[in-house]
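Study this chain:
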Amino acid sequence: MHSLALLKPIQSILWSVALLLLGNGLISTLLTLRGTTEGFSSAIMGIIMSSYFIGFICGTWVSGRLIRRMGHIRTFAFCASICASAALLHIIFIDAWVWIVLRFFYGLAYITLMTVIESWLNSQAASHERGRIFAFYMVVNLGALTLAQQLLHIASPDKFLLFAIVSILISWAILPLTLTRRNQPVINSARPKSSLKNLLKIAPLSVAGSTLSGLAMGAFWAMTPIYATELGYDISGIALIMSLTILGGAALQIPIGRYSDKHDRPKVITWVVTLAGIIALSIAVIPSQTALLAIFFIWGGLSFSIYPLSVAQLIDQLHPDEIVSGSSDMLVLHGLGCAFAPVISGSLMTFIGAQGLPLYIGAVLLILAAYTVYRRRRVVDLVSGNNAHFEPMVQTSSQVLSMMFDQPQRDLFDDPSFYGEEERERIINALRQSGS
């Protein structure tokens, strides 16, 4: 009953999230399959899918300004309309260059939608409830992404229907948010200041983990449907591979993360990355399709854990004041890795065939594994205190980071955007008069 009471203030937000991610999870796989049937090479599809991640990164810099100018609900409706129309324009204009442009603007609009949702969700969460609300939010994320792959059963990617379904789902995502009677939140007036230069000195392992995990996961999201198609899987098989990998990520992230909370986290990262790299290489030589499905499930659990483990390792080494800005930089680095991954892996698949994908992913992860071994043997990383609490994560906006990592109260008090200057002075005077 308490959980239901906790969800009541945010149920409209969660419904919007679910519908939005159903549409977004479907369009990503759908475009890869349709592009393949239209004769686009793996290299061209890699460029198309990279364009989405480039738009995603650019959107992290403009989303806050757009929300402050238009408000949360109007911005959400505006960007959802862009995404819904872009889904239909892909099927109307089947041209690689048009798709590249559409994917860029779709990515830019999509990250703005996520910023709206996550800033609103953050504003509705009391400090003592944020952990549980974040957990519910991650369940909705991973559940919707898993279910989205099964929507491929409805119709062939060669038809118009699936593109129309994507457009409908994204359009429906507007409804719960616009029907809410709750007040819109006020987004922070400034993006957290970048601390990347300091992070390279303080936590290079986290920087490497975030970037290289993006290079691996971006290739998975963009190119796995092409890989499965070239291996002879039908639509049902492709949907099953994608769903099982995501389910693996959902099932194994938390036990791996909780284990890392109680043990040497760099050592845990080393083992997780090494196993994920070896398993990725083994995918290239496994002949059995049944065994391949089990392998993708295990690989998903390991590989989906690398980015949140890197963020947790970063938090272990930062002062509380630096956590949100540092985690925001990790998000950008992960996105940059995702942006380059489809181009590199797609080009490799064009030259050596479908097995170029698992070979590429395995090589990236083993390079990261080698670096983690070097760091553990040659360098002692300074840790700020006790291990941070691991939180499962998917690619998201910087707004949700405030929900995961509460800022010290003094930061909020010293921030003029939190209290007006007159209110702040009044509180100071009252504290002085009370003898505090």
Remarks:
- The CA atoms of residues 130 and 403 lie 6 Å apart.
- DSSP finds 18 helices and no strands in the chain.
